């Protein structure tokens, strides 16, 4: 029932949008055919509409793609040339016009200079009435920062009718920014500055500093104090935002690290082999997203709704692709390396070189672009702190992956097998557990996890041949700090390392931050040589 | 005490010493360039580079082949030695034409008017030579104390050493280091140190300098070889090999494996540093690319390919892989990394004893083939 209602809702919304566009087209047609004396009345009607189609049409009009066409003596209509076809403005009906140059009924129309100016103001301010609140905010700030009086009026008139509280505040901010240059007297200016301080407006900061400098020169102590106060407010708000931003960035990097380290911890803890090519499986994930994106773009076109699904399709595909490759490699190579950890390190390093070079040969040495689906574009705002959706998605995704891994390991038969082989391979084997099958599947699963990390990374980082290298050293650190084969330890240390790294960066720079993290890890191992949760065993060499 | 295992080794060593120390330099210096016996200066400095690589591989082999520690920071120590000596060379390039100062260009570029205090000592040649050996020694000692004390071993040791390499590489790629509110100029960032002019008062590029550098490299290699041969026969060397085979048993027997490992780790770092110091004037530059973790793994593949835990293997491996590299980089630049990776995998999977152990490995196979062929030719009576 709910679904039907939802569908109905969508239908109604689409229909009403269609109706509005029809009205807009009607007004535009009248405008295009009107004499210059009538035009001013029609433009007013137009400015109240706020339909994005207006912008589109005005652009076409300016560039000479709009024509008037005499259907009969008394009836003239407006045609628009869209990709070499003439379409009627009011209903998109196609008109076949054989000879464009010499058709007497057809004539190109262009807006007069005066009209163009009016239209520009309308199209510039049109986003202020956009149905999308984000677009309204963006437009308001852009117009405010331009500090032109024409736009100030538009903003002031629009704020009256604005219903969304958040957008209202942004409109107010934009008006006040504009007033920094256009204020009538000093009193109004001071009021604006104080208000901008309260609103913690970062875009206004430069303007206020300029005013402060002027005031310092002219000796206006009160103005200087007000400016200083406002700047202090803005800066402290900015600090808070930065701190939260760092936390989220750190957590999302930590999440990627976590997924990577989980795969590593499982393969390492289970089979005692160090997979230096683990990083390249991350790259496989990233590149799978890229390939799937291109396939979708070829099949559906980038504008279609189906294209938006490429990323969600790519995630499971990347897991499967990497899993299959990992399965094959386990059968063909890693099988021979069990219990020879140092040698396995070398062979996998060789593998990683080969894979990297193959990526380079296939996709080029430069990074490739994986787009972000529309759903993940933009920011989520809490108390003025903008957190990008991609980063939040990555954190949520990591939680999901961890949950799945935990379920797999603790609730399924395969998980039981895996744990038993991890604890004692020979005993497990003698009890009839198919050890070699478990090995292959686990290794494939570990590689799949790496690819999932790569798919997540494609949204917050670069996809390139060496993308895995950046993470591999870190993720080994995570495994060592967490305690080998211990998933809880891996989780804690990944989040810890990711967040500490991000927090150190502003103070020490990325390089020193990293060096400090490594140094702290080495010192930490002095205190707890086996990591956070060392494996408990009676064997001497574990 | 006889240093060599058998007569073949002793003879080979003497022949190598004569050829490398006397014959090649003489063919370079005494014959005319047109003679077919002439060895060009390019070849001399190229082989000089390979010899330093061989020394580096030998130092890693001591750690990995004999003590069982797969150290992934050996090329870091090599680079540290190279940087230390490179700083000396950098300070003797004379007054450049662009900035008209005696400072290295990258300092001029950043607006330095005088040498920072931590660069000053490197103006003296003896100090630079000492630092080329000492700095890797100090770094490895401090790192070794921390690592061995907490009994990090096996793959964890490899991972930690790789992290050290990675961290210092990041540092050396930087131009400046901001620390405690002060800015320290580092070592030339991306470009590193290059454009050297003179060494100990002689021109770096002249044929005779390159010849002497080659001789010095060979001397170092031969000395290291003898030293390894000697150490292996002593109790110290035997304990090292025992640590490789079973560290816990050695510890139970009352040896402080930490001390043994620390000592050998430090010494090997110093050898690598010395090799780096000889490398830099022969190649004409050093930059942070020599510090990437990949370079350290290259050294590991030299050792593995040549024959790990043998005296001659690392030398052979370093030279053969370097020759292969220079051949393939010209013939098929795109596929070099794939070939190198394949060598890694093939060596690990099928050649556990490397090139040196190959005859031994193939012996049974060869025997079977021969016995087959003899049975086929000789009719059964």
UniProtKB/TrEMBL annotation, chain A:
GO cellular component: plasma membrane
GO terms classed as biological process: amino acid transport
Gene Ontology MF annotations: transmembrane transporter activity
Location of this chain's protein in the cell: Cell membrane
Keyword Signal: yes
Segment forming the signal sequence: 1-19
InterPro entries (UniProt xref): ABC_transp_permease, ABC_UrtB_bac, BCAA_transport_permease
Coiled-coil parts of chain: 145-172
Principal location listed in the UniProt entry: membrane
Keyword set includes Transport: yes
Membrane topology value: Multi-pass membrane protein
Segments traversing the membrane: 256-274, 281-297, 309-329, 389-409, 430-456, 476-495, 507-527
Keywords on record: Amino-acid transport, Cell membrane, Coiled coil, Membrane, Signal, Transmembrane, Transmembrane helix, Transport
Alphabetized Pfam families for the sequence: BPD_transp_2 (PF02653)
NCBIfam families: urea_trans_UrtB (TIGR03409)
Family classification: Belongs to the binding-protein-dependent transport system permease family. LivHM subfamily.
Protein name: Urea ABC transporter permease subunit UrtB
From TrEMBL, chain B:
Transmembrane segments: 12-30, 50-69, 76-95, 125-148, 155-173, 212-232, 259-280, 300-324, 336-356
Membrane topology annotation: Multi-pass membrane protein
Pfam (any one): BPD_transp_2
Residues covered by the PTS EIIA type-1 domain: 86-98
Subcellular location: Cell membrane
PROSITE patterns named in the record: PTS_EIIA_TYPE_1_HIS
Biological process (GO), any one: phosphoenolpyruvate-dependent sugar phosphotransferase system
Keywords: Cell membrane, Membrane, Transmembrane, Transmembrane helix
The keyword Lyase belongs to this UniProt entry's keyword annotation: no
InterPro entries according to UniProt: ABC_transp_permease, ABC_transptr_urea_perm_UrtC, LivM-like, PTS_EIIA_1_perm
GO cellular component terms, A-Z: plasma membrane
Major location category of this protein: membrane
The keyword Membrane belongs to this UniProt entry's keyword annotation: yes
GO molecular function, one term: branched-chain amino acid transmembrane transporter activity
NCBIfam families registered for this protein in UniProt: urea_trans_UrtC
Protein name as catalogued: Urea ABC transporter permease subunit UrtC
Gene transcribed to yield this protein: urtC
